[in-house]
Design brief:
The chain is an alpha+beta fold. Helix content is about 40%, strand content about 15%.
């Protein structure tokens, strides 16, 4: 049996590029977001679930581009 690897919130932040506040928000609103586990009041995350979630978020193109000029609609 393979040992279960758990990571801390700062390690999750490094792997995902998200802040701890964003992780907290996503944990409350995204049903597909990995659920944390607690050991002696320390929040930990299962590495395999984190890896799967991060890989599912990868895209070839950005969802938005702030550098593209906005098209003005004249009335």
């Amino acid at each position: 049996m393979q040992p279960v690897h758990r990571i801390t919130t700062p390690e999750f932040c490094k792997q995902s590029g998200l802040s701890s506040t964003t992780l907290w928000r996503k944990s409350k609103s995204d049903k597909d977001f990995p659920a944390p586990v607690y050991i002696l009041n320390k929040k930990l995350w299962y590495q395999d679930q984190v890896t799967a979630w991060v890989e599912a978020q990868e895209q070839a193109t950005p969802t938005h581009n702030n550098l593209t000029p906005k098209i003005e609609v004249s009335a």
